Amino acid sequence: MRTKGVLMIIADGMGGHPGGGKASRLATEVIERVYYGACSNSGKSLKKAFERANASIWNFARKNTPWRGMGTTCTAAVVNDSRAFVAHIGDSRMYLVREDEIYQLTEDHSTVMDMVRKGMLDKNDAKNHTDRNVIQAALGMNRSVSVTTWPHPLQLKPDDGFILCSDGLHEAVSCEEMKNVAQCHDPAAACQELIEMAKQRGGPDNITVGIINVRTDPGGSGASPVAEPNS
Ligand SMILES: [Mn+2]
For position 168, what pLDDT does the model report? Predict the structure, then answer.
């Protein structure tokens, strides 16, 4: 699987709907299978994998009435040689830690972010808005899906790090804090530390985080994926 790179997926089943756990499991299974089974380039394969996952969840819910309304956020990254690809839907997030900065690479598909985009709400007020958890798009909610992908891959630099997380983490821990923790620990320890921080702050939501650290030679396709789901 080396030639297709390292794939990391965060899928946060939707709270308040039955089947959130089922939807997120289906998403990760289908995306992994379709991505590694495809022969086209990484960005296209990842998008196709998301669309297939959407169809699987949608069809499952249609045939199983009690599961109707199931869905999941999904953010996936592929690190392949010196490039990274992303596909994203919902309000899980991906961040890039580069040199001493952290950049949010995904934009939430949420009602409040839509209001921010339209100039109806200040970005800082969005964090405390009562509707901040209302998602506008997710896998499995509709027959068709519009997945956000990048038109071009991101060129990696030595020591780049990627943090993927659910809203349970990014609501409780600031991006500055994420950066500091990710820089001070190896990926597994950093994930544990971030989950502990969010728990201590009383986060009632599931907290899921994964970190990929690119090794110093980006040409060597080295990455260390770690996912630490908390359930
Ligand atoms: Mn959540």
Answer: 93
What integer pLDDT is reported at residue 15 of this predicted model? 62
Predicted pLDDT of residue 16 = 63
pLDDT digits (tens, 9 = 90+) for 13-24: 986 667 899 999
Residue 175 has a pLDDT of 96
CA–CA dist 30, 51 (Å, integer): 10
180 Cα to the center of ligand 1, angstroms: 23
Give the orientation angle of helix 187-200 with respect to helix 175-184, to 10 degrees: 140
Domain count, the chain: 1
**How far does the centroid of ligand 1 lie from the alpha carbon of residue 198, in Å?**
12
pLDDT tens digits along 186-220: 999 999 999 999 999 987 788 999 999 997 554 54
Find the domain containing 88 and state its range: 2-229
Q: Could you tell me the distance, in angstroms and rounded to a whole number, from the CA of residue 26 to the centre of ligand 1?
A: 17
Query: DSSP characters for 169-205?
Result: HHTTS-HHHHHHHHHHS-HHHHHHHHHHHHHHTT--S
Q: How far is the CA of 204 from the centre of ligand 1 (A)?
A: 9
Computed over its alpha carbons, how large is the radius of gyration of the chain? 17
CATH number at residue 68: 3.60.40.10
Distance 11 CA to ligand 1 centre (A): 9
Residue type, 25: R
